[in-house]
Amino acid sequence: MRDEEISLAEACKLAGVSIRTFLKYAHSAIHRDRLGRYIAKPSDNLSRDLKYFRADGEIIDITVRGSREATLLSKWWVAFGDYARTGDLSVFRELKGKRVGGHILVTDRAALRILLESEFDLGESIYSQLSGGAR
């Protein structure tokens, strides 16, 4: 809804949830405009469980609080994919020293090599689960 400018009904249909369920768990992420239409807020504080690599190469689930933190982790995954293709460490420049879900984002070459040797498929979803309630 936020980026694609689609209606709440369309977004719920794409996500496979009812509007009622969405409003029950994620009502704080939207508001109504003066015409009564639901509009996504610029950011939210909803929790979501996402996949992340620890520096030792283990894939873990971390709880990310809010869309801004989720976006930061998403940028790390994009940078990791770019690094896997090119070997260019500079793609992590803006992420160095940043924390997500209480974890410092891995940006050093030695740890990234361990991650590249793992069995994770870069085409796999970073969401830990696609169903379940919001917190």
What proportion of the residues is helical, as a percent range? 25-40%
- Low-confidence blocks of residues: 130-135
The total strand number stands at 6
Question: What would you call the structural class?
Answer: alpha+beta
Looking at the structure, what is the overall shape? elongated
Order of helices and strands: HHEEEEHEEH
First-last Cα distance: 20 Å
How would you state the average pLDDT, rounded? 85
- How are strands sequenced across the largest beta sheet? 1-2
Number of helical regions:
4
Mind describing the biggest β-sheet?
A: 2 strands, antiparallel
Radius of gyration: 17 Å
| Fraction in beta strands | 15-25%
Report on the architecture of this protein.
- The protein has 135 residues and is of the alpha+beta class.
- It is built from 4 helices and 6 strands.
- It has helices spanning 8-15, 19-26, 67-86, 109-116, and strands at residues 30-32, 38-40, 47-53, 59-65, 99-100, 103-104.
- A two-stranded antiparallel sheet has the order 1-2.
- Strand 1 and strand 2 (38-40) form a beta hairpin.
- The longest helix is centred in the middle third of the chain and has 20 residues, at 67-86.
